[in-house]
Amino acid sequence: MKLKIAILPGDGIGKEITDQGVKVLEAIATKFKHDITFSYADVGATAIEKTGSPLPDESLEICKKADAVLFGAIGDPKYDNNPDAKIRPEQGLLKLRKGLGLYANIRPIKVYDDLTYKSPLKEKVIKNTDFVVLRELSGGMYYGENKVSEDGLSASDECIYNAKEIDRVAHLAFSMAKQRKKKLTLIDKANMFETSRLWRRRIMLIAKEYPEVTLNYMFVDNASMQMILNPRQFDVILTENLFGDILSEEASAIAGSIGLSASASIGEKMVLFEPIHGAYVKAKGKNIANPLATILSVAMLLEHFELFEEADALKTAVNKSIELQITTPDLNTSQKFSTSDVGTFISEFILDKKNVFTHI
Amino acid sequence: MKLKIAILPGDGIGKEITDQGVKVLEAIATKFKHDITFSYADVGATAIEKTGSPLPDESLEICKKADAVLFGAIGDPKYDNNPDAKIRPEQGLLKLRKGLGLYANIRPIKVYDDLTYKSPLKEKVIKNTDFVVLRELSGGMYYGENKVSEDGLSASDECIYNAKEIDRVAHLAFSMAKQRKKKLTLIDKANMFETSRLWRRRIMLIAKEYPEVTLNYMFVDNASMQMILNPRQFDVILTENLFGDILSEEASAIAGSIGLSASASIGEKMVLFEPIHGAYVKAKGKNIANPLATILSVAMLLEHFELFEEADALKTAVNKSIELQITTPDLNTSQKFSTSDVGTFISEFILDKKNVFTHI
Ligand SMILES: CC(C)[C@H](C(=O)O)[C@@H](O)C(=O)O
Ligand SMILES: CC(C)[C@H](C(=O)O)[C@@H](O)C(=O)O
After folding, report:
1. Domains (range + CATH), chain A
2. Which positions in chain A touch B80 (Cβ < 8 Å)?
């Protein structure tokens, strides 16, 4: 297969981790005889520094010309701590999501048996947890009108949704549930908000087309609790943009490490893959960031192109690295491997170079 | 002391649990020779059924004439599952908060050593957790304009804040931190929203008046993760209305049981105390609901009126009930006490009637 992948490292540790993603993709290409090429583009604080824009038009073009995007991370404390900054790295991510028409973010939460010790939850609570958070990505408060008064003493943000936006992601949610345990949970705050009630109305309609899927509802406050009290109850979670941001981060924490959480963002034409974690600017250049979430995002990329054997080879290699503790310090205390060590181990393992890391 | 308490049972299990609150307050009155009187008023689905309004004017008047309000719970699936209902129980709660000027909701999260086994978190993670969530209660998306289009195909909700609303609760947060471990965490999404940036600007200003308090910031998505990865890092959490709703529910889950989580809502003139949990309409009338969150809300009420000895007597009795497992089924598996058993045990214990429950 011929694949063109746009690599957008972004900020902080973004470069280090996407480098490992590329390394692993190159190993897959060699082993399975695919023609995978890469094009690089800037986004975020990095792009602001170079061009003044958090997403230069050229970067968006590079993405559009690719078959898929591999994204690193975005954000910089320099902007976070300055509430008056007008140009912000995150605008680049939003423009990218909009520009590529990415309307759904998929975050699978699966607990690795070897890593239940890393979870803050008790083993009996977390064991066998396996669900997916489907977050709407193109609407809600992220894209409504944001206002500040002239005197700077009041502000507002608007959460806005229309039926089309909801229907599109709802169909995806039902199809996913159909292929899994056939349970869909819509998370909203329909006892308070009009947008939530619009979500419920649309879902109730669409549910009729998927009689084999059991639909239930949960308020977002209750959901943030249920997620830790009984995560096994979930199969597919569907929710709006902001609730999805909060809940998917909570969900990845229960799985043991956010350093393992991958995600895919889906559009009509484009797809983007990225780790859930942030830019950890403090760790930048230290070669200590965990590349597994990025590498597992690459697995989702391969699966997207129906390269299942390839994805399996990659995941086997990741499992091996966890089993042998060839992992970064966040995942193990005894041995200390670097970001690039982990990427190298996984790609060499894919290439059957079993004699690498024999010093272990 | 002379105290007039308005009791608003609300919906579902509200009546059963506030009955225990009253029982315990009566025991305190007898034991410590206070003159505590009660007046009752309807709110929520119960009020809608009787009067058509989720908060009849009369109910608000009864509250205003009292020194404090003890609130049960609100909500009914009948309305939750009907996105088209125009009159809703929750409107009563919002009108009450507004009408009484309640601008801050305080939810202390403290882990009982005897109950770490109930927490979904590992003991090493949860042990010694002791923080307070301070949720702004009078603004944000709860009070912005909610709109649906004529054709019902689009909707919006507005999150709105002004400096005055933020300053008021921020001062409370800093004062609380000053009296505790001197650490304040503002939780927002300042990398995305104007209202969050307004929060940061105001807090930065106000922080100057409290040099002894260490202020730090956290994005809400990260906070939902940090809450379970490392809850001990928190002392006082300050956040806006909706984030507070989500995070305080998550926080009470980590403490072992939402059935134990009390809260106080503070206004310029009025105070309201309520358990964090909902109306559990399914359990209504079954005498199985855990009354401890309500009874611990009564402890907060006593502390508010500086009746510290009384609050201590109450809390000692609650600890005793937990120690002896004279608790409802949600907290223990071996013995099965009813809602009213637990209330009776605690009030009799306060009254030194040590021979009650000798069958244990
Ligand atoms: C960086 C930020 C704008 C972004 C979001 O909130 O969507 C991030 O938290 C994410 O989840 O991808
Ligand atoms: C019932 C509902 C409107 C309410 C809220 O969201 O404020 C509840 O969840 C709470 O936290 O008191």
Report:
1. 1-100+269-360 (3.40.718.10), 104-135+163-260 (3.40.718.10)
2. 190-191, 217, 219
